[in-house]
């Protein structure tokens, strides 16, 4: 039995409404690299991740990828209400990242601000309501 010390995070699901649109958003606007884009039966397995972290991938998943019908329906309801997952990225310059994404038309949820917990950060939302935060350590 494992005590948890041998565990490492490799994949995180991000609920999206359209995989192609999500791929273009996360690759072309956010700047993540494509890790996989493969057929998965009638579905598609699409993952992206930060170039500097090859061991972590975000699965761009739709409600139809959830095998249990009740959970798939719940995922569809969450998507309709705004998926509301959260991804937090570290960046070298919050202000430059903020300007780039704002100018690309990404919906702003918080302008850059210094936080009491030691970072300067800002917030955006993807087209499905997932929160994207970008931070840099203060000092």
Automatic annotation (TrEMBL):
Record-linked InterPro entries: Glyas_Bleomycin-R_OHBP_Dase, Glyas_Fos-R_dOase_dom, VOC_core
One of the Pfam families matching this protein, by short name: Glyoxalase
PROSITE patterns: VOC
Domain VOC: 8-137
Entry-linked PANTHER family: GLYOXALASE/BLEOMYCIN RESISTANCE PROTEIN/DIOXYGENASE (PTHR36437), GLYOXALASE_BLEOMYCIN RESISTANCE PROTEIN_DIOXYGENASE (PTHR36437:SF2)
Protein name, UniProt field: VOC family protein
Native organism: Nocardia fusca
């Amino acid at each position: 039995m494992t005590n948890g010390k041998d565990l490492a995070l490799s994949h995180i699901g991000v609920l999206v409404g359209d995989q192609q649109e999500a791929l273009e958003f996360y690759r072309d606007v956010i700047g993540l690299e494509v890790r996989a884009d493969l057929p998965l039966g009638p579905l598609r397995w699409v993952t992206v991740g930060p170039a500097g972290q090859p061991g972590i991938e975000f699965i761009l998943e739709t409600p139809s990828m959830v095998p249990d019908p009740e959970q798939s329906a719940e995922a569809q309801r969450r998507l309709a209400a705004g998926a509301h997952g959260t991804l937090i990225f570290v960046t070298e310059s919050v202000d430059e990242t903020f300007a780039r994404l704002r100018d690309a038309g990404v919906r702003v949820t918080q302008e850059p601000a210094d936080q009491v917990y030691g970072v300067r950060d800002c917030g955006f939302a993807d087209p499905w309501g997932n929160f994207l935060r970008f931070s840099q350590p203060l000092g």
